[in-house]
Design brief:
By secondary structure, the chain is an alpha/beta fold. The chain is about 40% helix and about 20% strand. Helix 6 packs across helix 8.
Length: about 230
């Protein structure tokens, strides 16, 4: 029986762009759902529960940032922001809203497909081998079920945040450079995308109630990288 291709929700108020992205992704075998504005996107999302959302930033009514935040209130399904603004400030704003990645218009079909594949690959989680749970003080990482809990309460992380935390925890006490982390968690094409790493580290710390100035879990080594602390 053939494997089911991922379902993608593409959201854009520009009908030509919507048709273009739909065509590109359908040629790759994806099942594509579409919406022309933020309200319609939320309706389709609730009815169909796609595997990934490609979300335009600049839309009338609910913009992409707001839609992203609304989805993040109840779902960790991966979101790629699609923007005409390529500066780091706009990219970080999208990541802060809860997005997993971004693609900047104009883009090639190859770039769009590569971003979608990379994000979907991350959500599958790269190590399915049985492995004992990781315990550190009141933090528990259940590798078998891809769950994280803190002081007995489950921590809601995106797939990317989970991969990032797992990679750091598996290398406890070792300083990992940004290049090492980006290549392992995101992929080789993401080396140099330091804002992606900074934003996800900040989001992870917030979820773990970890203070960057007095870290319990993740320490920053200025000019070098990041390290999951050893137990004392």
């Amino acid at each position: 029986m053939p494997l089911r291709k991922a379902s993608l929700l593409v959201v854009d108020d520009d009908i030509r762009m919507l048709r273009l992205m739909t065509r590109i992704l359908e040629l790759e075998g994806y099942w594509v759902l579409t919406a022309g504005d933020g309200e319609a996107a939320l309706d389709v999302f609730n009815e169909e529960t796609p595997d990934l959302v490609l979300l335009d930033v600049m839309m009338p009514g609910l913009d992409g940032y707001t839609v992203c935040q609304r989805i993040r209130e109840f779902s960790q399904i991966p979101i790629i922001m699609v923007t005409v603004k390529g500066n780091d400030e706009e990219k970080v704003k999208g990541l802060d809203a809860g997005a997993d990645d971004y693609v900047t218009k104009p883009f090639s079909s190859k770039e769009l497909v590569a971003r979608v594949r990379a994000v979907l690959r991350r959500t599958k989680l790269w190590d399915e081998r049985p492995e004992p749970a990781f315990h550190y003080n009141d933090l528990v990482i259940d590798f078998a079920h891809h769950r994280v809990s803190l002081a007995g309460k489950e921590v809601d992380l995106t797939a990317t945040e989970y991969r990032l935390l797992s990679y750091l925890a598996r290398n406890t006490g070792r300083v990992l450079t940004p290049a090492q982390i980006l290549e392992t968690v995101w992929g080789k094409d993401y080396i140099g995308e330091h804002h992606l790493l900074r934003v996800n580290i900040a989001r992870l710390r917030q979820s773990l109630e970890d203070d960057a100035k007095a870290p319990r879990f993740i320490a920053t080594k200025i000019g070098i990288g990041y390290m999951f602390l050893r137990s004392s």
